[in-house]
Amino acid sequence: MCDVHLTAHNQSVEHILIEPTASFSNRKCSSHKKLQEYYCCEDGACICASFCLAGEHRGHRVELLNEASEKKKEKLRNVLEKLSPEREKTERGAQRLRECRREMEEKADGETERVTGLFRDIRKQLETLEKQLLSDISRQKEELSLQLTSLIRELEIKKDELSRKIRHIEELCNMTDPLTVLQERESDGAAFFGAEGADNEGRDNDDIKVPVVGDLNVELISKTLLTGLAGIVTGVNGTMCGKEDTDMLLDKNTAGDASDIVKEEMVPILITPQPNDTVAEGSGLCVSSPKKRKISQQQKRKNHQSQISAIV
Question: Record keywords: Coiled coil included (predicted)?
Fold first, then answer.
């Protein structure tokens, strides 16, 4: 309403002014078409004056809408006073959980980066160890190949000399002139005698005598491999335990301490070769199972010697 009508209605006590509403029909009683002015406390319903005097709400405790509304607002304020701290508490809990999630994600990202870097270093060290072992094997192969080639050449020369003698003797055996045969024996009797002695010795012993040549040092290769792996494991263990990571040199002469540390936590399982067996490729490896125990320095040296003896 306008200001003029508002002033006129506001001067009367009987006129109850309310805020403008979009649907005024909702404020009227559906049965009596009168304005709902009261609130039934027992049934929790808004009613008109007709229901209070002669209706189903007769004799019930009723209140004016404003009074009932204020009482309900007071209750709601009390509830609000309890809910507000609870909401703040819930918000603080959610904030702490968000902080925990953020810290967890940062920690997970850090661990991911650390583990990725760790495996990158492991692969790099394994590649270095592999190159070192392959280089050692190639070097030994080259040295032994040169020795064997030289010995083969000597035996080939000896075989050619023996073939020449055999042909010469066969020619003498095919000669019909006895004087020529006898004169040849007189002039080169020592050479024939040596051939006869070699022939008799060959009949007594059929084994082929081959000059002694060194074999591939599988023990050294296996020791270098185990020492390198032990150094890598020691470095990884130190990194995972939060220790300062140090540069590890894959040197078989300086990485012995790392090998001893790993051996303290590993029980060697060795396959002892038979007397007539040959050491196959990779047979010098020591398959170990984890088992924590304390071993003295003397016992470690004894175990190391036993491993070397078993490999040999």
Answer: yes
Q: Which two tokens stand for residue 83?
A: 């809910």
**For residues 196 and 212, what is the distance between their CA atoms, to the nearest angstrom?**
26
Alpha carbons within 13 A on the beta-carbon side of 169: 14
Give 263's contacts (C-beta < 8 A, 6+ positions apart). Answer: 230, 295, 300, 303, 304
Q: How many alpha carbons fall within 13 Å on the CB side of residue 10?
A: 8
The verdict on pTM exceeding 0.85 is: no
Q: Give residue 95's identity as a one-letter amino acid code.
A: Q
- What are the boundaries of each domain within the chain? 139-197+214-311
Ranges of residues in the chain whose predicted pLDDT is under 50 = 186-187, 189, 243-295, 304, 307-312
Task: Output the six-digit token pair for 103.
Answer: 């810290």
E strand residue ranges, the chain: 38-40, 45-47, 62-64, 266-269, 287-290
Report how far residue 293's alpha carbon sits from residue 265's, in angstroms, rounded to the nearest whole number: 6
